[in-house]
Write a structure and sequence with these properties.
This protein has 18 helices and 10 strands. The protein is of the alpha/beta class. The chain folds into 2 domains: 38-57 and 143-416, Alpha-Beta Barrel (TIM Barrel); 419-495, no CATH class.
Length: 496
């Protein structure tokens, strides 16, 4: 048999194999871990063991006051359009009351149809089906798991305070987290945000990290949440995450933790994080400096736009420079397995008559109406921002207030539910054809799309948009779905 062409270039072949291995290590593909749909930030001085449960109760109260009816909620959030105006602008109290009663009757009839035959309602009135499906899932989520990720904040949410005060806050917050772990009230993801590792704050950041982790381990008998995340803000130099890695290694040695047990997150908040003085993008170097510990990268919307010299009135998540930053993050971190997160909507759903600790039913009707208008405006802005993030491949964002939780989940669930039927049919068809390109309607699939469709269902299931029972429509068995790899699913089917 004649020699292969490759036999004539053994050294080049070896170099190529080495380069391919290095590339695969750097870009292993999407992570199999669950990604939270949001991170709620709260000042460390305010954190208590039941903080996330209290946030859930507050979110439920807002929903029951201003979105108890599924159709009303869907319109308030902006998932479906409001009805065309039929009454005069200066409608009488009697006319307004009659209109509300009619709307309530219509919603009750739709609700009965949804309970009786949701698929029929889905076919005949998809907007109504979406409103009831989303509302049901949001209620369940707020009762079961109101917060997916919480960050105990020692940076912007805490501020610059005397060292003794931050020392005390770090120890107290750690004790509260230990109690949350013991009581089972800690969310699936949790961690702390330390101050930046610039010249001014390095010593303070390291001390807070040491005190918090040491106190938490002492209180729990050596246990940590899994994962436990340390968020590093305002990264501008690769030396900063590299230094944090050294600090985490030291903590692991001191407390006899498994190497790599402590994870970190990066925050992209300054222009220098995107373009260095040498004209190169520093983002890949930041990730390399994390030495395998990086869990995610977050865009800090308002610090970033401020660093771009955007005036406060125009600092927004949908600003073109934010889209540019997120695009660069996608390009730099695509295929690396780390999670990307957008920022927060800073217009909060708070009515002019809101009072902390008071419930909506104690307010006068006029106050509730004013609050409703204000809250709906904020909800719709949030919905547009979250939807914009999802469409851009950012499946996580920040929330700053409990009244933002209903709209976060509603928008995310609607995003996945709207495309569920088509995506399920495409995935079933593609797998049935055993990875041969297929045509479903006017959408042409290839192997990469197959994995993308599978990832869609993984995310939808993780956040509560769909259930295990819904997955039957994809044609995947539960054991196949748990593989989370399109290639592995096909390989298994070929063997059977």
């Amino acid at each position: 048999m004649p020699d292969s062409l490759l036999d004539d270039a053994p050294e080049a072949l070896q170099a190529l194999a080495s380069a391919n291995r290095a590339f695969s290590a750097m870009f292993p593909g999407p992570s199999a871990q669950r990604q939270p749909v949001h991170t709620v930030y709260g000042g460390a001085q305010l954190f208590r063991w039941d903080t996330t449960a209290r946030l859930g109760r507050s979110a439920l109260q807002t929903l029951s006051t201003y979105g108890a009816d599924p159709i009303e909620f869907a319109r308030g959030v902006g998932l479906i359009a409001p009805p065309a105006p039929g009454a005069p602008a200066q409608a009488s109290v009697a006319q307004e009351s009659a209109a509300q009663a009619s709307a309530a009757q219509e919603s009750a009839a739709l609700g009965a149809r949804f309970q009786r035959d949701p698929e029929a309602l889905r076919r005949e009135q998809p907007e109504a089906w979406l409103a009831f499906a989303v509302h049901q899932r949001v209620l369940d989520k707020l009762e079961r798991e109101p917060v997916e990720d919480f960050r105990i904040d020692f940076e912007d949410g805490f501020g610059a305070r005397p060292d003794a005060e931050e020392d005390e806050a770090a120890e107290n917050a750690a004790r509260e987290l230990a109690r949350a772990m013991a009581e089972g009230s800690s969310p699936p993801f949790i961690g702390i945000r330390i101050k930046s590792l610039n010249t001014e704050w390095t010593e303070r950041a390291a001390r807070t990290l040491e005190l918090f982790v040491g106190t938490l381990l002492a209180e729990t008998g050596g246990r940590l949440p899994d994962p436990f995340l340390v968020t590093l803000p305002k990264v501008t130099l690769a030396e900063q995450p590299r230094m944090l890695v050294r600090l985490l290694e030291s903590l692991e040695r001191r407390h006899h933790l498994d190497p790599g047990r402590l994870k970190l997150e990066l925050m992209v908040e300054l222009t220098q994080a995107l373009l260095g003085p040498d004209g190169r993008c520093p983002l890949p170097a930041f990730l390399q400096a994390c030495e395998g510990r990086c869990f995610g990268a977050h865009l800090g919307t308002y610090d970033f736009t401020a660093s771009c010299d955007i005036t406060a009135a125009y600092q927004a998540m949908a600003h073109p420079l934010c889209d540019l930053a997120k695009g660069m993050m996608v390009l730099a971190y695509g295929g690396t397995g780390i999670f990307l997160s957008d920022g927060a909507t800073n217009v909060l759903p708070i009515g002019p008559s809101s009072q902390q600790g008071s419930s909506g039913d104690l307010l006068a009707p006029e106050q509730i109406a004013q609050n409703r208008a204000s809250i709906y405006n904020a909800w719709r802005l949030s919905q547009r921002n979250v939807r914009h993030s999802l469409e851009g491949g950012f499946y996580q964002g920040w929330d700053l207030h409990p009244a933002q939780l209903p709209v976060r989940y509603a928008t995310t669930y609607a995003f996945f539910l709207e495309g569920f039927s088509q995506a399920a049919d495409r995935l079933r068809n593609f797998i049935d054809k055993a990875a041969q390109a297929t045509l479903v309607g006017d959408v042409f699939d290839d192997a990469a799309t197959g994995q993308g469709l599978l990832n869609y269902f993984v995310r939808a299931l993780n956040c509560g948009a769909i259930s295990q029972a819904d997955l039957a429509r994809t044609g995947l068995a539960p054991a196949e779905f748990r593989l989370r790899s399109f290639a592995k699913i096909l390989a298994g089917r070929r063997k059977s």
